[in-house]
Amino acid sequence: MRVNNFREFDNDFIQKIKPKQIQIDKEQLYQENLELKLKTHSLTQEVLRLKTKNMQIENELNRKEESKDIKYTYEKPQSTTLIPNLKKKIKDLKNELGQSEKEIHRLKSNIKCSKTTELEAEVQAYIDECTRLRHHLEETLKAKQEPTEEEIMTSHVLTSLRTENSELKKQLSTTKNDISALQKSLDEEKKKKRPIVKKIDVNKRTEIQKLRFALDKANKDFQEKEEKYQTDIALLNAKLEQKSIKSQTSKTTAAPKPMPTQNKSNENSESSKYKPSKSGPIANLFITKTKIKTIQKSQVADLLLRSSLSLQIHRIPKESFSNLINCQEPISHTYLKGFFSNDPFGFDSTESSILSQYLIDPYDNEVEELITSASLAHITEKFTSNTDDWMILTSADEENLDKELTDIVSEYNIILKEACLNADPERKGLIPIEKYQSILNDLQITLSPELENYCKLLFFSCNMQINVVPYEFFLKSYTAKDDENSDMDDEEIAKIVRGYLERIADRMIENRSSVKDVFSYDDEGVISAENFVEGIEELGIYDIPQGHMVLILEALQYENSENSCVLVEELEEILQHYGVEGYKDSAPTQEKDNEESEYSDDYEN
């Protein structure tokens, strides 16, 4: 009857007049309808479960009452209050059960409880994995305890080598003692045989040295200024000659001036003292024209070297230099200046003008007039004669030279690095080529001419500078990759990675930033290697070597990608163990918590 009444009540409720305008969206109504359906379904299941439990309890109670009634028929009843007490206890237990089930359901609907269950499952999986690895480790240790024949042989060899080493050390110490004794005796004999020399005051020596240094410096400054002034004077003389020639030509073409009046005769006589006399056939014999000095090879030696290296980088042979100049003869200074300013040379305006003037000038040291054009044959002949020959290397030749370089650098890597760092106190990563050559000579490293030229080409291609060695980039590029981390065990690598992760976590905790705030990622949540390095540099960590950075990226490598990258979620989980909080999307999470609390309150009511 109750069910029928409930259905009639539902039908009556449904048949009510619906509002004409519904202000709630259809999607929201649909979502609420689905949520209510799910809720009703769960409640019906819970009611069925409670009904079945109630039925079981009632059946059990009836069974116990029947057994007690049969018992009381044969025996006298001890107390009449037992059955109501039991019924009351059953009712209390039912109420407690209902409350506990409601509490369990409320806890299950909370997100925190689900997180704890997930963490418990993870911990259990971690414990199982640890036990498995422990058993595996015990088995491997048992297997390793029994020494093999090779290990026995190596131990014997090691003991013999240690004994030999100790004996050699003893011999070395005795020889050192003998050398020190001989040195002492030699010093004593030198003191005995030393001639008497007049003592010179130390202050006078220092003053003499200071004066010498000052004099040398003054001489150098004077020479530099003299050369500068000579070049300036030569250029000014050339300009003056051009202007005088123009003025003379203009005077010959112009009309004759009228004779001055008698009143101005005195002024003309005075001004004639300071004005130059008119040019004539006799006067020209006594005029000496100043010659212009041509640009010498020493002034453009670096530019010639740079131009030859630029052509080698672009794989242009020396014979093809004339083919690069596409201009009708005679070739002007302005065209050559533009030619050297463009690729493959890329000189600035002053450098290109000096080099083009040098190629246009004749082989003489001085000329009467400034020459502004020359033939193609003259320019090519002067360029080829003043530059060294070079060969265009094939890919096979380059591979062989690279292999030879890697072998040499890998063998002397540590010694070369230390020597270059000592030669570079400012830590710029660059040293002069003279110092680099002296380092190679000290280490007795001899390079073939082909390899030496190839090294010069590599140094120039790095930063487009001559006579400079970028040793840091060079040693990193030509060190074998296996040599960098080959000596490290897995434990050492893990220790290095953990240390850097702790530093990253500490910086993020100080800045109160999350992983997604620091590291930029794509739509799939993948952080590229470049973005990972940029994020670490944003945290203020700049001293991680390249080899260690490679180790960190290998440890955090995303398995589903072939490229070097890191997944954001995995990095968040790892850094959470070091105390970094996850990415907080505050507004949505608060709304979800509010919705869950409302649903839980509704369910309890």
Automatic annotation (TrEMBL):
Residues 593-605 have a biased composition (Acidic residues). This is Uncharacterized protein. It comes from the Eukaryota. Residues 47-110, 158-239 form a coiled coil. Residues 245-278, 581-605 are annotated as: Disordered. Keywords: Coiled coil. It comes from Stentor coeruleus.
